[in-house]
Specification:
Elements: E1 9-13, H1 15-18, H2 32-40, E2 44-46, H3 54-61, E3 69-75, H4 78-82, H5 88-104, E4 106-112, H6 125-141, E5 145-147, H7 167-183, H8 202-231
Parallel strand pairs: 1-2, 1-3, 3-4, 4-5
């Protein structure tokens, strides 16, 4: 990354990049992009908005990008692929616009793929795989670093809705992004996970499972039941 451009890390996307949530097992609630910025020792600018689809990035977030950044990070498409009106063609065109614009405003671009086991009810691995193929192709067109999240899963990393990462999941995404940048030859002073002190004990995991996770699961099961009744 440029030694003269120190405008830092720019993040665009939806609620996952916005990063709201609850702390867990010694890990503060923090966006993966903010963790990455702190590990890279860069200033941080977040334009992500809860509920955004890729077309919203084109309409709302890109017009606010007027200067050049060291690194731009984009994690988007989760809301697109979960929509029953999913259009691969529209997603492809909009994502192409997003990544081309970000590439023109950053020394380096990092783009995340989408977990295959997405959503409850599930979005479907076929749709997510289609979206990931588009993401990977469009990223390569811009010589962007791809952060592979296809296998991101597990109750400690993802909330029961199978969409939003837990605090630990956000940290895992940040670590994967740091590793992807390093693999591309970009110096990363430290991994994001060294910036906190997670509780890796079995007792801590059991306590979390029986308290916070159980409450989250109950809320999500209630949500699913309401949605099923509305569809009936």
């Amino acid at each position: 990354m440029s030694e003269t451009c120190r405008l830092g890390l720019l993040a665009v996307g939806d609620s996952i990049t916005n990063g709201n949530g609850d702390p867990m097992l010694g890990v503060p609630a923090r966006s993966w992009a903010l963790w990455l910025a702190q590990a890279l020792e860069l200033p941080y600018t977040n334009l992500a908005r809860d509920g955004a689809v890729v077309a919203d990035l084109v309409r709302e977030q890109l017009p606010r990008v007027q200067v050049r950044y060291d690194l731009a990070c984009c994690y988007a498409g989760v809301n697109d692929v979960r929509d029953v009106a999913w259009s691969a063609e529209a997603f492809d065109a909009d994502l192409g616009r997003v990544l081309a614009s970000l590439s023109a405003h950053a020394d380096q671009l990092a783009v995340a793929t989408i977990p295959l086991d997405l959503g409850r009810p599930r979005a479907g691995a076929a749709k997510v795989g289609e979206a990931n193929a588009i993401i990977t192709r469009r990223a390569r067109e811009q010589r962007a670093v791809v952060v592979d999240l296809a296998d991101l899963a597990g109750w400690q990393l993802v909330l029961p809705d199978a969409v939003h990462p837990t605090a630990r999941g956000q940290l895992e995404i940040a670590d994967r992004a740091a590793a992807a940048l390093e693999a591309a030859g970009i110096a990363v002073p430290q991994r994001p996970s060294v910036l906190c002190d997670p509780d890796d004990s079995a007792r801590g995991a059991a306590r979390y499972a029986l308290t916070a996770h159980a409450a989250q699961l109950a809320r999500d099961l209630t949500r699913r039941g309401i949605e099923r009744r509305r569809r009936a």
